[in-house]
Structures are given as C-alpha cells and as structure tokens.
UniProtKB/TrEMBL annotation:
Belongs to the cytochrome P450 family. It comes from Bacillus cereus HuB4-4. Keywords: Heme, Iron, Metal-binding, Monooxygenase, Oxidoreductase. Coiled coil: none annotated. This is Cytochrome P450. One of its GO terms (molecular function) is iron ion binding. It comes from the Bacteria.
Length: 56
C-alpha cells in the first residue's frame, strides 16, 4: 500500500482503515497489552531480545 498511488491507494486505505479507528483500537487495548506483557516476560527470561524475531 505504501507504493500505490491514488486512486488505488485511496481504495485500499478505505478497505483496511476501519479497524484502526480510535474506538476499535481502544477495544483491543487490553488484549494488546496482555500479549505485549507475555512477550516481554519471555524475553526477560531469555535475558536478550531480537526485536523483530521476538516481538514483531
């Protein structure tokens, strides 16, 4: 999507933007926090972190 020009970019953005409105993000906040905490606990136990492999 980053390399697509209008009008295709506009069409694609409309298709994927709804889940990213503030209300939807707020609804997911607790689940995202839980997943992030679990990942960080695992990394802490390992004593190191490869950000892409371990977290992304």
């Amino acid at each position: 999507m980053l390399t697509v020009d209008p009008p295709n970019h506009t069409r694609l953005r409309r298709m994927v933007s709804k889940p990213f409105i503030p209300r939807m993000i707020e609804d997911l906040r607790s689940r995202i926090q839980q997943l992030a905490d679990e990942l960080l606990v695992a990394v802490q136990e390992q004593g190191k972190m490869e950000i892409i492999a371990d977290f992304a």
